[in-house]
Each structure stands twice: as C-alpha cells, then as structure tokens.
Amino acid sequence: MAASKMVIASLTHCRPLTCAATATASYPARLVPHPPELIKWVRREGGFVHQAVKISQDGTNSFGLIASQAIPKGSELIVLPDHIPLKFGPLDFEVADGATSALVNLAQKVPEELWAMKLGLKLLQERAKIGSFWWPYISNLPETYSVPIFFPGEDIKNLQYAPLLHQVNKRCRFLLDFEKEVRLTLENLKPNDHPYGGQHVDASSLGWAMSAVSSRAFRLFGKKLPDGTHIDVPMMLPLIDMCNHSFNPNAKILQEQDPGNAKMLIKVVTEEPIKEEDHLLLNYGCLNNDLLLLDYGFVIPSNPYDCIELKYDGALLDAASMAAGVASPNFSSAAPWQQQILSQLNLDRENSTLKVTIGGEELIEGRLLAALRVLLTTDKEAVQKHDLDTLKSLSANAPLGIANEIAAFRTIIALCVIALEHFPTKIMDDESLLKQGVSASTELAIQFRIQKKSVIIDTMRDLTRRVKSLLSKNTTTAQTQG
Ligand SMILES: C[S@@+](CC[C@H](N)C(=O)[O-])C[C@H]1O[C@@H](n2cnc3c(N)ncnc32)[C@H](O)[C@@H]1O
What we know:
binds S-adenosylmethionine; 14 strands; methyltransferase
C-alpha cells in the first residue's frame, strides 16, 4: 500500500477506495500485493476445498482454479457455508443500521438492468471497512477490470458496433450521474452512519465495484420466503469465482440445504472426470460477446451465441430486397393482412420491439424470418395455412414455397452486406493492426469487432448454402414435373 494511502486510512479509520482503474495490465494486480490465502480462509470459515484444488496463474485469464491431481466425476470441489457469500438484499440484514439504510436508499436509485451496482455498493462498504469479515476475499480481487467503461475514448470508438457503444455510453453516463447522487445522499450523514467511513466515492470506484460484481457474481437462490419459494439473488462467491468460463465446463454450481440447519450450502461439483492439471471451468451462461465484454471484459472467438442486432425497418428491408434482385418488395407498404401479422410479431410500430438479431443459435431471429416470409408473398391463403411458430422457424421447410424462401434468404444476405459495410474497417485491416501490437484495450475492441463481422460473414455463408440447396431442389422438382 502506498504511504499516502496509509495516511488517509489511518486518519479515517477506513481503507481507501481509490483505484487507478485502467485496462492496461494483462495481469491485473490484486488489491493488495500479498493478499491472504483464499483457500485457507475458506477452510478456516468452515468451508470445504478439495485437496487437489489449487489457485493457478495462467497465461490469458490471470488467475484460475486447477486440479493438482485427477478428480472423479461427481466430486465436491468447493462447499461454501451460507455466511461466506457476499450478498446485499432486503432479506440479508435483520435490522438495518444507519449505514445500511443509506446503502438501501442508494440501491433503490440504481436501474434494475445495472443490478451489479447494487451489490457493488455493499462490496465498496466492505472494502472500506477495517476488519471486514470479507477482507481476505476482497483483498484478492483484481485492482482493475478490462470492461469497456474503462477503455480510453478511442477504444470505445474502436468497437465499431453501435448497440455496444450505446450500452457503454449508458453505463459511463450512469456512473457519472450516480457519483453525484452518492455525494448528495451521503454528505450530511453522521460519521457513524456513513457507509464508507466518510470517504468520497467517485465514478471510478463505483465502476470498479460494478465491474467486480458483474464479472464475478452469480445469481442464485436467496433465502426461503414464507411461501416456500426462493428469490433470485446475485452473490459473490469467494474462491468459486476464481473459476474461469467455458461453454464446455467441467464443473457446475449446486445449492443444497445444509443438513445442520435451514441454511443453504453452495457447492461446486465436477461434471466429468478431471485430469491432473485441468482447469476447473464453469459456464457463466449462454452469453453473446456484447454481454461478455460489457460485464466480464473478454470475448470468445467463434462464440456460438454471438449475434448482431438490427432494427426492423421497412425502408431498409425494401432496399436490401431490391439489392438482392427481389421484384417489387413491399416492406414499407404492407397489405392490411400482412400488417396484422407484423403486429402479432410486435414489429409494426415505432414503440414495438424492433430490435431483431442475426447469428447465434437461431441464425435468423424467428420474428424477422416470419416477417420476411409473409411480406415477400401475396398469397394470403398460403400464409393462413400456417401458425406463427411455423412461419418463425428456420427448420420449417420453405412453408410459403421455395421461391419465397429464396427471396427471404437473399434479402437477409443483402441485409448482411449492408451491415458489413457499416464497419469502417475490414477483418484483414483489423488483423494486421493486431499483428502490429496494440494496447490491451485496443486489442479487445478489435477482437470484438472481428467477431461481429465474422458472425455476419458466417450467416451469409450459411444462407448462401441454403439458397443453393433450395435452387437445386427447385431444378429437381421442375425436372421431375417435366
Ligand atoms: C469470475 S472471474 C474468474 C477469475 C479471474 N480470472 C481472476 O483472475 O480472478 C471472471 C474473470 O476471469 C476472466 N475470464 C474468465 N473466463 C475467461 C475466458 N474464458 N477467457 C478470458 N478471460 C476469462 C475475465 O477477466 C473475467 O472477468
């Protein structure tokens, strides 16, 4: 700890919250240079850690968990008793003291989509508190995060993808506004009621806390409600959150009732036999690269859940259809019966959900596919023979005929070309920039946009294959008929 920070801490009887949060280090340092040993702390607190589980430093993900010897399938790796996870919900304190009430007040001002900030307020309180129960855990947290709210402005632009730029700007704006809100709420509190020991909490500290939570918290069952149900509560799980992510994980999290009392135990259990030196990996969720980058600060190449977002827009679809050689498309002048279907698809008005996706598991979002199929035909009776689910399904074999299916796919291919042209650089340019060597945040931004462009190209390839196959079917049918 720097001398100046020690002086502040000893004057205020709390730990300083300042952090130089930038995304420059590929191995983010921990909050203190030599934090206590996490595994020992978990065991001391009554938790269980399998003797073969070790913390390892790895080339790409900084820290992770690794097996020092083979472990059979179904083994318990880590068990945390109920008092170890860090939570912040209305059921997690019996009586709210002044400081907790202040935090509850602040948490109410955080929009639901930024839930990580709510728990972040609590994390910051524990980070500031000398003698916090969670200090052995918190001191092991990274000092900086590679999420885009900490990117230099140039690298936010380098993402080149409007929906993500929008989200990043929204989060940055929120943090700046929330800094003011926190100051106003806390400025007149009595010292004992101040959750941060009287320290000013700036946007950078709030961003640190929000990123620590978004990149490490798991949403699990909270306390049992009187009606026997559980609410979904985000919690930070010491040691368990040292597991890195994979879409093909070898371990999973389970919650079980503690046989000794009514409280819940949180366990990590192996899902397959683990070999010596294997990394212990959890699946953080079926997330696209936008969410992985925003919340966790990394992207997955060839992510099967990655997709691009477009706005459903009749004029754009007319242009795409014409570019694809489809005769007189009428996306912006649909017949009343077609309008009716658009309305069922929630694609008919400005205030509908006009965001549609291409790529990912579905390849073409069902609502977009159905809209294209329906607007590219004049055969109302043929449409009425199918339910909406069939019209939305890519695996339904050309429900409105082969010519209609080809026109729909060609329109999407043209839409992909338009989307690709919106990126200022080509994948080749991006790859040569990466070869030249760039900062960690520039590299992440470039990797992100390469992946987005790859999603578009892969979708075009897939649809082109489908068009070819439909064309050949068309020829075969014509020959058979002839
Ligand atoms: C829950 S923590 C895992 C432990 C973390 N690696 C550490 O050093 O404390 C999640 C963070 O680990 C890193 N991470 C996890 N899985 C990753 C992966 N598959 N690729 C790249 N980074 C990953 C990211 O920085 C992410 O925000």
